[in-house]
Amino acid sequence: MGQRFSVEGNKYEKVKPTGYWTFFCNPKKWYIDEFILSGKIEDSFTVSEYHKKDFKPGQLGVIRVGHDRRTKKQLAGKPKLFRGIYAVVKILGSDEPMKGTEKEYWEDEGDVNILKYRVPIRYIKTLLRKPILLDNLELSAEEYDKYLIEGQQGSTMPLSPLAFKKIIEIVGGLDSLELVFNESNEDNDSISKLEKKYYDAVPEVKERVSRYIERGSIAQEYKKRTGFKCQVPTPLLFQEAEW
Fold this sequence. Notes:
The structure is a single chain. By secondary structure, the protein is of the alpha+beta class. A hairpin with a 2-residue loop joins strand 1 and strand 2 (10-14). It folds into two domains: 3-173, Roll (ph1033 like fold); 181-243, no CATH class. The strands form two sheets. Strands 3, 4, 5, 6, 7, 8, 9 and 10 form an eight-stranded mixed beta sheet that branches. The chain is built from seven helices and ten strands.
């Protein structure tokens, strides 16, 4: 059960974090279509007051667009967006007070200079040309996520893991996501840092981290010595794993 408390005079239900997130985007305030078309893949996203400190590296989420109320002038010839899911994202770090980025995509460029709790994200699957429209998204009773479908006033909300799994199935499965890692995997210290960084990651990301470590030179050397049985000391992600 969620715990209710007051935020800015309104009643909200504190939903327990799941490791998966819905990011609510108002295309009138922030032009997500132009950002995606730019080819950029990293940005930050404002975090709701009641979700501060809940974000961890290696969590995953979706960008949900609500009703597009932009004027013809704002659209500048572009079509309006329909209510739907327009991207899958990976959380790169914890949320913290920071200014915004990419001011050219804000309706009010002054918003970028406001210090707010924001979380760094990477777009690992963009769906601008083929979004998952909410009116067409069929979810079972177990998969249904009220906030994903009906929306809410805040910027973020924990997402049902089953709803996220359904979304990923629709977009082509986990292998269709650009889950890449820039950290080194070539020595024990680097592997330890990877484990520490992704300690609170969701299972899908931990599995990818395991594969990434497996491809490193240390893991390859251990595999040769042990008949392709991995014995690299990586207690969080994989132990005595057979390949």
